[in-house]
């Protein structure tokens, strides 16, 4: 009983101190809850992959694209996640990724690193709470 009370008090303290954040997927499903940068709870179901038509491509354009997608997470200058799709016979995701990581290391950039994936997901939306 004491332990449960301490956990509840810790959660209330974090909420009152403004140290409470959460992330949601595009459908509004809760993905994580906790302190900023340190989630206490994460959903066990991964976000659904985003399709090419969801990204605004026509079915004809989507049929010409395949292979890994380069995902560029948001940084200080651009606040949205960007996706780079490649034509079926000209997929240079790994080469472009190596170049971006080398540029990133040279400039001592911080934040999430770009990556290649076969199943890109829609970016999550983040929320914070400050109760006073």
Topology:
Elements: H1 2-17, E1 20-24, E2 30-35, E3 38-42, H2 59-63, E4 69-72, E5 82-84, H3 93-106, E6 115-117, E7 125-129
Antiparallel strand pairs: 1-2, 1-7, 2-3, 4-5, 4-6
Q: Helix and strand succession?
A: HEEEHEEHEE
* Secondary structure: helix percent: 25-40%
The strand order across the widest sheet is 3-2-1-7
Q: Major beta sheet, specifics?
A: 4 strands, antiparallel
- DSSP summary: helix tally: 3
Query: Spans with pLDDT under 50 lasting ≥5 residues?
Result: none
Alpha-carbon Rg, integer: 19 Å
Shape verdict? elongated
Strand percent estimate: 15-25%
Walk me through this protein's architecture.
- The protein is of the alpha+beta class and 132 residues long.
- The protein contains three helices and seven strands.
- It has helices at residues 2-17, 59-63, 93-106, and strands at 20-24, 30-35, 38-42, 69-72, 82-84, 115-117, 125-129.
- Strands 3-2-1-7 form a four-stranded antiparallel beta sheet.
């Amino acid at each position: 009983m004491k332990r449960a009370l301490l956990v509840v008090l810790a959660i209330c303290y974090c909420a009152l101190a403004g140290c409470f954040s959460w992330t949601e997927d595009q459908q509004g499903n809760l993905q994580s809850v906790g302190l900023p940068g340190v989630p206490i709870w994460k959903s066990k179901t991964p976000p659904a992959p985003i399709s090419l038509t969801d990204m605004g491509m026509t079915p004809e354009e989507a049929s010409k694209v395949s292979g890994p997608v380069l995902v560029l997470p948001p940084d200080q200058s651009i606040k949205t996640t960007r996706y780079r799709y490649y034509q079926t016979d000209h997929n240079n995701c790994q080469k472009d990724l190596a170049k971006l990581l080398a540029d990133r290391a040279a400039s001592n950039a911080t934040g999430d690193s770009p990556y290649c994936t076969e199943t890109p997901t829609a970016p999550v939306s983040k929320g914070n709470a400050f109760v006073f």
